[in-house]
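Final report, Chapter 2: Outcomes

The project's central promise was a pipeline that accepts a single protein chain and returns its three-dimensional structure in a standardized token representation, suitable for archiving and comparison. That pipeline is now operational. To close this chapter, we reproduce one record exactly as it appears in the project archive, with the input sequence first and the structure output second.
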Amino acid sequence: MDRLQAMKTFVTVVETGGFTAAARKLDVSPSVVSRIVNELEAHLAVRLLTRTTRLVRLTDTGSAYFENCRRILGEIDDAELLAAGSHAEPRGPLALTAPVLFGAAYVTPIVTAYLQRYPHVDATCLLLDRTVNLVEEGIDVGIRIGELPDSSLQAAPVGSVRRVVCAAPAYLERHGVPQAPEDLARHTVIVASAVSASPEWRFDAGGSQVVTRLQPRLTTSTNESAIVAAAAGFGIVRLLSYQIAGHLRAGTLQVVLREFEPPPLPINVIHREGRHATRKVRAFLDLAIDTLRADPSLR
């Protein structure tokens, strides 16, 4: 068994999500991919993957082995580039994830600048308002908003965002400006479930937490539609400050209850590889961290 080929095949299966997709990427038949992975598991005497009719998932042992394989293969690529005299030239595929609106407004410009700087790298951006498992979904770098759970991921803080309550000036003229969280009971409330899955908002009042239960007139699954409804004067919404920054500058939305805002949420750039990060990942991390930390709207 060619162990290097086996590692590459195993990593490709995990990153593409299945044997058929890995076979297409490697330009071999699915049976060849299956045979190589079976031989690798037999050689190691462990189960690396749990197979079902619909998907392939890493076992706990497989997850640790996957991380080591990625690191080893990345170091081999770096060694080959160095030997070929291309020490400073990142290359290969790079996968990233970020929340939808944050990704569009802040991450995409960084990615395009990175790709223009490094023409031998191709990037894939997974912009979703859910927590993406970097290992299971083959992601190199992620941007997370909120407190991070304890994990083996490496994190670099780059800023913070506020949870703000806002409405259109025309709405506030008609219905009045709420002066305290309990005043929301008399207002038309819009809830974006991507931000507030439960019908309650939490506020800070002099260091004490205040929980306000809501009766939303409009519940929507996307932040974009909640912003449209609020900007049109329909009601009051709670979103993250970066999501409505343009509307605040334009005056189409106005912040209320600012003195009751809870503490800001941290923004972190996360990755899996630590000091063993490949050159393409290190180069992106350097650019993303420097760019985001310099952005005054994220403070």
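Archive annotation: The domain at 163-260 is CATH 3.40.190.10 (D-Maltodextrin-Binding Protein; domain 2).
This record, like all others produced under the grant, will remain available to the consortium after the project formally closes.
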